[in-house]
User: What shape does this take?
Amino acid sequence: GQQLNQSPQSMFIQEGEDVSMNCTSSSIFNTWLWYKQEPGEGPVLLIALYKAGELTSNGRLTAQFGITRKDSFLNISASIPSDVGIYFCAGRYSGAGSYQLTFGKGTKLSVIP
Amino acid sequence: ETGVTQTPRHLVMGMTNKKSLKCEQHLGHNAMYWYKQSAKKPLELMFVYNFKEQTENNSVPSRFSPECPNSSHLFLHLHTLQPEDSALYLCASSLALPGTSGSLVVETQYFGPGTRLLVL
Assistant: This one.
């Protein structure tokens, strides 16, 4: 099956710093999604990308759909303590007939005030 | 609050017990999903229902039995589980299945808070 490699696994950063994380795959995806999960809660969708090369922002978050359609990155600018959580990438494979999203293992973000 | 609720939030059960997890959404969504989230592993899709009909069973062992009596409710019946089944079980719903509409709004999955299951 398709696999997503998400890195880094965890990050400790100082408040105010910018953050960058990425996902790569050996397969082509036609949709990339980025979710955030806080302790005790389910994942919440942050950004969705549908086209190769697409760059989309949501407040301090910016995500890009790689040109090769095999990767995506998420940037968070000027981090704040409430950015703490686990960030997951997810992709939908281009293969026909699949309703599945493939998820990465997540990047755990800790922000030091 | 995403509009998707799950009960119970925590569950401890023995390997011979029978229990059920409940998911409820009043978002008017037609598709509902069960996911398993284990430590250090990606989210794993278990089952997909669309308009109460099961569309995907992702090779899940028969000790997990889903039930979708209507578009607003989804159950996961548990029977003779193993310790390795301990995990966070997440329910999600969306208006339409991924890839069927091209619309983010329609296909976005809203997750419940999950049920933390411990099998002893």
About this structure: The interface with chain A takes residues 2, 4, 40-45, 48, 55-56, 58, 90-92, 97-100, 102, 104, 108-114 of chain B (CB under 8 Å). The mean pLDDT of chain B is 92. Helices of chain B lie at 104-107. Chain B has one helix and eleven strands.
